[in-house]
Design brief:
Layout lengths: L3 E7 L16 E2 L2 E2 H11 L4 E6 L4 H11 L4 E3 L6 H6 L11 E6 L7 H12 L4 E7 L8 E4 L5 E5 L6 H4 L3 E10 H8 L16 H7 L4 E5 L11 H21 L3 E2 L5 E2 L5 E2 L4 E2 L3 E3 L4 E2 L4 E2 L4 E2 L2 E3 L4 E2 L4 E2 L3 E3 L4 E13 L4 E13 L4 E2 L4 E3 L9 E3 L4 E2 L4 E3 L2 E3 L4 E2 L4 E2 L8 E2 L11 H16 L1
Parallel strand pairs: 1-4, 1-6, 4-5, 7-11, 12-15, 13-16, 14-17, 15-18, 16-19, 17-20, 18-21, 19-22, 20-23, 21-24, 22-24, 23-24, 24-25, 25-26, 25-28, 26-29, 27-30, 28-31, 29-32, 30-33, 32-34
Antiparallel strand pairs: 2-3, 6-10, 7-10, 8-9
The structure holds uridine-diphosphate-N-acetylglucosamine and calcium ion.
């Protein structure tokens, strides 16, 4: 197989976002759009990935090189069109022999299978492979002009199109595959003699046809190729991603009672036979295993939920939460960097941070792991089968032994031995008749003042 490289275009100004953050760093599914394109390039096996950036976005350079390594960006200055942008990556790809895929940094939802088909078109003898879609409103998109055999003859930009060409609804997504040597050879012939005065990448199709080469299209759904130019389009891309992910997960055996109210991150993994109630949000880094129930209004991020565990309603799992098999995390319970053992329960109103809860332990309502002294964080360990009475504060670092009991309302500052009972609260005293005497005395005091 040919080696593969990707060129990701991200040198556009993105002014319509009205943002101090470069456009391609805005997130879809909790991940910057640029990283979607990088992930895609990696998924289809690109050994070299070059991001074309503007000199005005140093944070973009930093972001891209943090993920792709030093030298993985090429600067386009000034931006003179998509063809010029691709040419800017020529030096960075010097010596590369193989197939190149051109992606945009602002088009996050391209399926890997579509890119794979474009590479296959090249392997099948096409000079250029272009990803197209049927547009509901073709508007400003470039039109794909095909011949009788269905092969691609040219891409015509809307501004340069004739009325007949404008009537075409088969549009250019911008994603294109070409062998490296041919790509840069054809690009050197592209001029800016057009309405926009730009060097169009799309012109290489007509140039390849002039040489007698064949160009092919691959078709995908419009919702998968939406580009993002504004906040409204960002929200639209997010909605498209969420829709697609919900459909995928349901087809893989996940039940959602109101799927339109459940939100996933780009990397959320939900195994089959998980049930998700309405209004649940998944941040990045969550894996939920078979048989688990995620109840309404829960928020999960960086968390693992094991088989048959039950989360919520109204639970919050933060990074490092690991909820063991059959464990229960109930309403208004927050878990952070804590392993909760199999069968353990924290059913109401608790904070479990920087801890470890043993198998079948019971954490009573209102329990707090006091993990922070304003400077450092400390660990709380609760043993297997331990029972923490309601409204207890476990002041870390502290360990509660296996099978131990902590009396309700305790402030526990020292370790508790296995199977012991620890009570850390004032002893209850009772004064018979005190309330009556108090009331009589106070009433007299009040009457004397009048
Ligand atoms: C381009 C295509 C059009 C296609 C559409 C799909 C060309 C000439 N036109 O049009 O056929 O239907 O995308 O969305 O290719 N960029 C640079 N440097 C530049 C110009 C652009 O890096 O000098 C980057 C942008 O950041 C963006 C991408 O290239 O990620 C596309 O640029 P844009 O200006 O949006 O292209 P369109 O005019 O929309
Ligand atoms: Ca665009």
């Amino acid at each position: 197989m040919m080696e593969r490289a990707a060129i990701i275009l991200a040198a556009g100004q993105g002014t319509r976002m009205k943002s101090s953050l470069p456009k391609v760093l805005h997130k879809v599914g909790g991940q910057p759009m640029l990283d979607w394109s990088i992930d895609l390039a990696r998924k289809v096996g690109c050994s070299k990935i070059i991001t074309v950036i503007s000199p005005n976005t140093p944070e973009l350079k930093e972001h891209a090189e943090a993920s792709l390594g030093h030298g993985a960006t090429a600067v386009q200055d000034p931006p003179l069109g998509t063809g010029h942008a691709v040419r800017s990556a020529e030096k960075a790809l010097k010596g590369f022999v193989g197939d190149v895929i051109v992606l945009y940094g602002d088009t996050p939802l391209i399926p890997a299978s579509a890119v794979e088909s474009l590479f296959e078109a090249l392997e099948g003898g096409a000079a250029v492979g272009v990803l197209g879609f049927r547009a509901a409103a073709p508007g400003a998109y470039g039109r794909l002009v095909t011949g009788k055999d269905g092969d691609l003859e040219a891409i015509v930009e809307a501004k340069d199109a004739s009325p007949d060409e404008l009537a075409i609804d088969f549009c250019n997504s911008g994603v294109m595959a070409v062998r490296a040597e041919r790509l840069f050879r054809l690009l050197s012939k592209v001029t800016n003699d057009n309405q926009k005065g730009e060097y169009y990448l799309t012109d290489i199709v007509a140039l390849a046809r002039k040489e007698g080469s064949t160009c092919r299209t691959v078709t995908c759904e419009e919702r998968d190729v939406q580009g993002v130019n504004s906040r409204k389009e960002l929200a639209k891309a997010e909605a498209a991603f969420q829709d697609r992910r919900r459909d995928e997960l349901m087809s893989e055996g996940v039940t959602m009672i109101a799927p339109e109210t459940v939100f996933f991150a780009h990397d959320t993994i939900i195994d089959n036979d998980v049930v998700i109630e309405p209004n649940v949000v998944f941040g990045p880094g969550v894996h939920v295993r078979s048989g688990a129930l995620i109840r309404a209004f829960s928020h999960l991020e960086g968390a693992n939920v094991e088989e048959n565990a039950e989360i919520g309603p109204y639970a919050r799992l933060r990074p490092g939460a690991f909820i063991g098999e059959g464990a229960k995390i109930g309403n208004f319970v927050e878990v952070k960097k804590t392993r909760v053992g199999p069968g353990a329960k924290a059913n109401h109103l608790a904070y479990l941070g920087d801890g470890d809860v043993g198998a079948n332990a019971n954490i009573g309502a209102g329990t707090i792991f006091c993990n922070y002294d304003g400077f450092l964080k400390y660990q709380t360990r609760v043993g297997d089968n331990a029972f923490i009475g309601s409204n207890s504060a476990l002041v870390a670092p502290v360990r509660i032994g296996n099978g131990a009991y902590v009396g309700s309302g305790s402030v526990i500052v020292e370790n508790v031995s296995e199977n012991a009972l620890a009570i850390g609260r004032g002893r209850q005293v009772e004064k018979p008749g005190w309330a009556d005497e108090f009331r009589t005395k106070k009433a007299a005091e009040k009457a004397a003042r009048k």
